[in-house]
Specification:
Number of strands: 7
Number of helices: 3
Order of helices and strands: HHEEEEEEEH
Distance between the termini: 90 Å
Radius of gyration: 32 Å
Strand order of the largest sheet: 4-5-6-7
Length: about 140
């Protein structure tokens, strides 16, 4: 009886396997492949619209009071040439470059500007050293 059951199962398995196409176990599922392709197409379109390029300045370092631009693992100081442009000034928010006689500002964080906080404490209170704290001394 067991032999017949085993024989029946053995014959049924190859029939099922033949109906389905062999799938590579290391390949991504079809739904995931199409989602990744759509995301890549969207990112390529946004890169053409205004994303920073590969040559964009992304990092500055300050050491001993001097600002440096770090690009591709190399440190550039004020007065040095970076991709054909002379570095004029380095701050926390931007780098000023002179190229072909034109001075241009390259912001590190596009659309983000550092502003001083609004002054909510009156000048007389701040100057007197009185703290507006609820803590007991």
């Amino acid at each position: 009886m067991r032999c017949l059951l085993m024989l029946g199962l053995a014959m049924a398995l190859p029939a099922q396997a033949g109906d389905e196409a062999a799938r590579d176990p290391m390949a991504w599922p079809v739904a995931l492949r199409s989602a990744v392709a759509a995301a890549q197409a969207a990112s390529a379109a946004s890169a053409a619209v205004g994303e920073p390029s590969e040559r964009a300045i992304r990092q500055v370092v300050f050491s001993n009071g001097r600002g440096y631009v770090v690009v591709r693992g190399r440190r550039y100081g004020v007065g040095e040439t970076l991709d054909g442009a002379r570095i004029e000034r380095v701050t926390e928010q931007a780098v000023w470059l002179r190229e072909s006689g034109q001075l241009r500002r390259e912001p590190l964080y596009g659309g983000v500007e550092k502003r001083p906080p609004p002054s909510s404490i009156p000048a007389a209170t701040a100057a007197s050293g009185v703290k507006n704290s609820k803590e007991k001394p």
